[in-house]
Inverse folding.
């Protein structure tokens, strides 16, 4: 049986969700490095450092090689070479790797991750795959203003669910530490354009959006936003503000396709599951 060739993000973008899952699973490999670290081949090619103790993300990626296949497909289809994209809440770098591969050496990725332990692995993964020249790494929590300090709470065994904590929390944690803040407006201030922003920050989405007002007005990037109305005090105002700029709201379905969705549907159908909303900028070809 001939060896399988590694896949590029462009290859993934040409496949259906089911094909992406099968092709990536056929190529997944893992190696235990000791001290709770695992090296895995993900996305059909790149190498990624994972934590054996991470129940919510790493263990799935070790076995499958992918995460959220529908979102993987969407990003692989609609990111283009040369684009500038932000990965806000980059975690261990799964989407950072996908984005960097897709935009290529002419593009640029800004990956923002507040958890110091996770950030260290993210930085090593980026370097391991040769993306130091493409990816700018920011060890901070994305919020409305740069230069502050906030408390970061990390649930035991679920580092991807790290949240900014403003009061004591009695749940068990493996890390509760003070981290610096950075706004997207400050990070994007010197850029000629911003094409794509993915925001996955476990309830801090309103803070991130307040910190990118100028970026939205200047560049109108496509925004991919994890959204759960039950998390926010005034979810309607968040959507109102974005609709005033973008005109409509899209949602990414489980096949990785963009579909229009009404604001009332988002606000009235409150579940524990997050929605993946998309506010399409001019660079997004639908």
């Amino acid at each position: 049986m001939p060896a399988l060739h590694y896949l590029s993000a462009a290859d993934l973008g040409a496949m259906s969700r089911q094909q992406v899952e099968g092709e990536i699973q056929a190529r997944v490999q893992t190696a235990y490095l000791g001290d709770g670290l695992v090296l895995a081949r993900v996305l059909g090619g790149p190498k990624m450092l994972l934590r054996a103790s991470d129940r919510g993300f790493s263990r799935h990626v070790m076995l499958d090689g992918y995460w959220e296949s529908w979102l993987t497909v969407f990003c692989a289809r609609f990111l283009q070479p040369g684009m500038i994209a932000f990965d806000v809440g980059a975690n261990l770098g799964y989407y950072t790797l996908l984005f960097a591969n897709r935009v290529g050496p002419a593009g640029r990725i800004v990956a923002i991750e507040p958890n110091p332990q996770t950030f260290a692995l993210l930085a090593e993964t980026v370097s391991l795959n040769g993306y130091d020249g493409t990816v700018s790494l920011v060890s901070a929590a994305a919020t409305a203003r740069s230069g502050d300090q906030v408390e970061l709470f990390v649930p035991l065994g679920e580092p991807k669910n790290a949240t900014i904590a403003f009061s004591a929390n009695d749940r068990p944690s493996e890390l509760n530490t003070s981290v610096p803040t950075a706004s997207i407006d400050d990070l994007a201030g010197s850029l000629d354009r911003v094409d794509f922003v993915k925001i996955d920050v476990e309830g801090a989405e309103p803070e991130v959006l307040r910190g990118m007002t100028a970026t939205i007005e200047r560049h109108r990037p496509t925004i991919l936003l994890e959204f759960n109305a039950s998390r926010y005090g005034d979810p309607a105002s968040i959507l109102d503000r974005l609709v005033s700029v973008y005109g409509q709201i899209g949602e990414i379905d489980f096949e990785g396709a963009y579909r229009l969705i009404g604001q009332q549907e988002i606000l009235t159908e409150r579940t524990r599951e997050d929605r993946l909303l998309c506010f399409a900028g001019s660079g997004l070809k639908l």
